[in-house]
Amino acid sequence: MTASTNVPFTWEHIQQKLGLTVGSPKAAALGTQSSVFAPSDINSLMQTRCKDGERTEHLTKLAGTLVASGVGEAECILQCLLWNSKNIEPLETEKVTRTCESIIASDRRNHPERYPVNLANVPLFDLDAGRIDKYISTNPPPYRWLLKDTLVLGKVGAIIALGGSSKSQLLLQIGIGVATGIPIAEHWEIGDPGGVLILFAEDDNDEIHRRFARVQHHLRLAGKGKELTGIEKRLYIFSTVGTSALLTERASSGEVKVTVNVDRIVALAAQIPDLRLIVIDPASRFRGGDENKNEDATRFVEALEKIAKATGASVLIAHHSSKASYNSEVEPNQGASRGASGLTDGLRWQMNLNRPSISQASELGVPKESLSRYVAATVTKSNYSATHAPVFLERMDDGYLSAVSAAQAQQRAEQDAIMRILAVLQTHGSMSARKIEDDYGGVKGTLNLPKERVRDMVKIGRQQGLLEGGDRKPLTISSLGADFLRFDAAPEDAMRGKKSPPRKKSQ
């Protein structure tokens, strides 16, 4: 007998033969077949016995129905052979098999997603690609640092802190530093300056404007105006308030998946020349799923890594710390991140911002009433360098962050305390040191200083020539103290730039 030709069927041909109502292969791809083809339809087709002239058409209809209902290739052929065996005059087994294979081949071309490739025996990598010859014959490439000796370019990191701990302020200063090459908070040096993209999800454009103006003001007063030139070509800031910018979200299947916003951010970043940094603040506004599930946290890190890999830039996020980190007796650690540990585990770099712990406060050496002005910046995880000692940052009244040593912090705390005492004398006139201590010191005093602290500051103020009198004489403001008060009326950062209080003029 002459063998039949194996002719592939198109979906249109199958639909015509079967009299189906499925509109297109696209509809089939959406998984609607199971609702179109009920088991009763297949049972009816299986029970139909055909004679010569009916068999091929019925076989096509049966095979197409089985494939469209999601039956696998082997099962489809088996069922069709079973049906054929009940016919009055069965078709040749080879023809049944070829017809099923033809219909399945057509479906495979139109819907490859329904036919996952069996990779069980396919190597994960080309073995030659894993050869270590290149490690032996060449020198390793040096690190490219975003922040010298702490944060490597092209990696994902985070700043972890409680709400209101200046995460966004520091990230803005980092962005400005990377875009200009100006050291961040007068401390961290920029390794590889360049373009910056910042996405703020909690601050609107007006607040971003105010913060940027304050940072720019401080830098210009510090003589960095030249470095700021051209920053508008390197720094781009967007407020995403009121905008859905999720990088991951939970799908209908319950699995958290990466969204198209990852590719859209990559496309946006591609327009910025020499991009070095992308800031995403805060993480909670850009991630879906459950932040307490490691699997969901890992998907978010993978989304960030995809952005870093596609752009070559470092990606820094802001994230809130856990309730446990509220305890000032707990030293900063990489477990301070709120939610699943999978987030910190996936990051390559982490910095914690916190109010100085008890031991840090002792190291800083400032009185308790002044601690609220300071935050400790501690790198708790760095996969590419040793961690460094905490850096203490003073928060100016306008929010600007400036690194200080313990000696500088103590000196500034003294200046603040003396300034308050001078202000009291300026407002209420001369009075005895005891009266200042009793009436304005203590828990309820307007100086907000312990009485013993007031006594010590009066002594230091006299030694520096800012106060006159004492020793049973009323205290008054000296001419030098008056100059000091006038100087304090200038912008705070100008005063902060003063390395030491005025010295008493020699007689």
Description:
The chain has 507 residues and is α/β, with parallel strands linked by helices. Helix 4 (39-47) runs antiparallel to helix 5 (55-68) and helix 6 packs antiparallel against helix 7 (93-110). It is 41% helix and 15% strand. It is built from 20 helices and 15 strands. The protein is elongated, with a radius of gyration of 36 Å. The protein folds into three domains: 11-114, no CATH class; 145-404, 3-Layer(aba) Sandwich (Rossmann fold); 408-496, Orthogonal Bundle (Arc Repressor Mutant, subunit A), CATH 1.10.10.10. The strands form four sheets. Strands 5-4-8-9-3-10-11-12-13 form a nine-stranded mixed beta sheet, sandwiched between helices. The chain has helices at 11-18, 25-29, 33-36, 39-47, 55-68, 73-85, 93-110, 133-137, 167-180, 205-221, 225-228, 261-269, 294-311, 342-346, 358-364, 406-428, 433-440, 451-463, 479-488, 492-496, and strands at residues 145-147, 151-152, 156-161, 195-200, 235-239, 248-250, 256-258, 275-281, 314-320, 349-354, 374-382, 391-395, 401-404, 467-470, 473-477. The N and C termini lie far apart (128 Å). Strand 11 and strand 12 (391-395) form a beta hairpin. Mean pLDDT is 85; it is low at 1-6, 21-37 and 490-507. Pfam families: AAA_25, PriCT_1. This is Primase C-terminal 1 domain-containing protein.
